[in-house]
Amino acid sequence: MVRTMIYPGTFDPLTNGHLDIVRRAVRLCDRLIVAVLVNSAKQTAFSAAERKAMIQTVLQDLRTVEVVHFDGLLVDLYRREGACAVVRGLRSESDFRFEAEMAAANKLLLPSYETCLLPCRIDLAFTSSSIVREVASYGGDISGMVPSALIEKICERFAARNSQQRPEG
Ligand code: PNS
Questions:
Q1: Atom of ligand 1 at shortest distance to CA of 129?
Q2: Nearest C-alpha to atom 3 of ligand 1 is from which residue?
């Protein structure tokens, strides 16, 4: 039986913390689906297609990883893919509260749903997509926070945004 796990998220953008979880999760299953949330209600710096492409660039050497978009409920994707667990990274107590609520809600919706929480590496405990966006928006150094293949794309996006926002004259 193929053991499929799903790693869902917004990944706006993928960070070194996410990458660490992917690398550890591939060892726990036969097939890992990295599922990028398409959420039209949430403003993201990168479109779903861009986020997916960026992840594919970074993960291209991992043969058992697939990157997909998903919209709607995570349990529907879980059922469709015949998954045995969802994997999520845990950085802090505040993460735990959110993850526990999400796990409980999903378990109510689908009794076979399981969650596998992986504590993050201590040196990545304060790395998040929102911190990356914040630092990049001020032109700061994000090289310790994201895979090197993504640095240029992220910096370009925020440089373009800043020049659009700059008042004329
Ligand atoms: O990286 P994020 O933004 O913390 O990921 C959150 C995500 C995408 C895992 C979560 O928002 C999600 O699963 N959304 C899909 C909608 C859903 O199933 N909601 C019910 C779970 S409480």
A1: 1
A2: 10
**Cβ–ligand 1 contact at 8 (below 6 Å):** yes
Beta bridge partners of 4: 31
151 CA to middle of ligand 1, Å?
A: 25
* Pocket of ligand 1 contains residue 105 by CB under 6 Å: yes
Q: Which residues contact 24 (CB under 8 A, 6 or more apart)?
A: 118
Residue-wise pLDDT for 12-64, tens only, equals 999 999 999 999 999 999 999 999 999 878 899 999 999 999 999 999 999 99
- Full set of structural domains in the chain with CATH: 4-122 (3.40.50.620)
Per the listing, tokens 């370009």 go with 156
Give helix 93-109 / helix 74-81 axis angle, nearest 10°: 60
